[in-house]
Amino acid sequence: QIFLGALSFVYFAKALSGSYLKSTITQIERRFDIPSSLVGVIDGSFEIGNLLIIILVSYFGAKLHRPRIIGAGCLIMSAGTFLIAMPQFFMGRYQYERFPSTINSTISISPCLQDKSQTPLTTLEKPQAKTNAGCEKEAGSSMWIYVLLGNLLRGIGETPIQPLGIAYIDDYAIEENAALYIGCVQTVAIIGPIFGFLLGSLCAKLYVDIGFVDLDSVTITHKDVQWVGAWWLGYLIAGVISVLAGIPFWFLPKHLPKPESRKDSSTSSEQSKFITEDNKDQYKSYQQQLKIAEMAKDFLPSLKNLFGNPVYTLYLCASIIQFNSLIGMVTYKPKYIEQQYGQTSSKTNFVIGLINIPAVAFGIFSGGLIMKKFRVNVLGAAKLSLGSSFFGYLLLLSLFAMGCENSDVAGLTVSYHGTKRTTDYEQALFSECNSGCACSKNDWDPICGENGVTYISACLAGCQASNGSGKNTVFFNCSCVGTLESPSQNSSAVVGPCQKGNECPKMFLYFLVISVITSYTLSVGGTPGYILLLRCIKPHLKSFALGIYTLAIRVLAGIPAPVYFGVAIDTTCLKWGSKRCGGRGACRLYDSSALRYVYLGLTLVLGMVSIFFSVAVLWVLRKRSSPQDETLSANGERGACGTKSRKDNFVNSDCLIQTTYWPEKETRL
């Protein structure tokens, strides 16, 4: 019970820091002025850390002191989390684009600069000296590398938790309760993302340089597209929690007493080759003399044994493709909600943490409960896993109809005359109404005209005058605003982009409802999938099989998925930001329709391919569970266990029929 509680808390800690990273994706992108594809590389560095040592940890860790290895991993994980927050303390203060009249200036400056002599140098082309100074300050933006390295270290520390922890529970729990215990651990772990996203929501409302600058001097709000929250603060909190989570494992024993019902069970512990219950003293003395080289001898045969199992191999392929779909979807879900429905980072994280994540927790727990209550066998677990995936992706299909149209942005999505954009956007940014203004196409300081159209800057809107300062600035006599409906020169605009269309809030509500149901449906198959994975392999290979499984997910899904999802999302960008020294920065505005089709389409296609492999798993299991296969194979090992016997035979066994004992206590499907 102590181990179960400690492992649950560790799962909570690692899930909190992992989900907090997801919640800060857009903040990091804006803070370091980098594209989504590069943010995807940062996100994938966690999986690279796993890749470096997961095979060694999962294979050799099974023979060593598993609780202490998990405790050491927690310390490494916390060090990485602290490292992610470090750039905030070494780089300069965050600088955002603002027209001079909005920065608490007492002098009213015309945004449309017909006479360049009246304008400060900061709004026109800067001298070379100024540009060079800006470039030197901007060198701090390369400190995103420390975020990448910290996430890499987090991945290394997290490595032993899953393969060693889950296998430890499966070794010493009463067999029919193992599914429920694993379901409990995963359910408690879901509380981590809830707090992670809620923490992300709180920090997104706090200004990035809180404690370093006077907040009264900040002229943007958390609703502004250039706003960056205190992303670094949550990492400090998550690091402390990781340290606390690792403490109990240093005081737990290497082995626990085996339940009476499992001492003679065919599902022996993964250390059963080394443990003899009758002669523990002899075992201890043998264990002390065991050499690493002797353990390594069985590595390649064990690997061959795993991949020679068609059920394991097919399920591994299905999981890899499905996790590509899910990891990509989860990584960019905050960005999708922000861009598609015009929500703030704070509200987006709050909604995901309070609505989406509990649905996932309930789904995972439901899967474990169904497995225990109905005593579902391996074949039933495969059916449950397949059914949840099929209906989950079917529901996801309906989200294509629940999007918002592009906001009306002059020169990008609509022309200055109100028609849809048909020409290249850079050329379309300039029109007759702003031809007399000295404007830059690289600026991004959006204003909302009284006609409901967003303009990239007050200059491009042709505004001749302004009143007020900071967040309350109002622009007057905007020539481009008046060309759509009213030719009057009294047209005005306010700071910030216009809100999405009237239908968008309703679509966002529909999206949330379907998203919650989809999350629950997909999660029901989580625990049955774990049990299928554990039961389709030989008992002493459990940790190794889980390690290989986790390795494959990290390498073939966790690393590439955020990167190619980010690259695909970058193709839908309509307006890129510009760095002070030249070059492309972070995206400022996306094409809503293209983003919806790319984001949801990629998720759905990958999901459907994974279902194809899940069907293959079910087909192989059906074939192997037929009575004709209930024979001894040529090498003398027991064949597949039958699935047609009564449920009351499901006692202390991996299969529905309690098989007789044979020398190596190995069960095959």
Automatic annotation (TrEMBL):
BP term (GO), one: monoatomic ion transport
InterPro entries the UniProt entry points to: Kazal_dom, Kazal_dom_sf, MFS_dom, MFS_trans_sf, OATP
Catalytic reaction annotation: 3,3',5'-triiodo-L-thyronine(out) = 3,3',5'-triiodo-L-thyronine(in); L-thyroxine(out) = L-thyroxine(in); L-thyroxine sulfate(out) = L-thyroxine sulfate(in)
Keywords, in A-Z order: Cell membrane, Disulfide bond, Glycoprotein, Ion transport, Lipid transport, Membrane, Transmembrane, Transmembrane helix, Transport
Annotated GO CC locations: basolateral plasma membrane
Signal peptide: none
Topology of this chain in the membrane: Multi-pass membrane protein
Keyword Transferase recorded: no
Pfam families in UniProt: Kazal_2, OATP
Transmembrane feature ranges: 41-62, 69-90, 178-208, 228-252, 312-330, 350-370, 382-402, 507-534, 546-569, 598-621
Keyword Lyase: no
Gene Ontology molecular function: bile acid transmembrane transporter activity; sodium-independent organic anion transmembrane transporter activity
Region Disordered: start-end pairs: 258-280
Domain (Major facilitator superfamily (MFS) profile) ranges: 3-625
Compartments in which it is found: Cell membrane
Organism domain of life: Eukaryota
Ranges of residues in domain Kazal-like: 427-482
Family matches, as PANTHER family: ORGANIC ANION TRANSPORTER (PTHR11388), SOLUTE CARRIER ORGANIC ANION TRANSPORTER FAMILY MEMBER 1C1 (PTHR11388:SF99)
Entry's family note: Belongs to the organo anion transporter (TC 2.A.60) family.
Protein name as annotated: Solute carrier organic anion transporter family member
Organism: Lophotis ruficrista
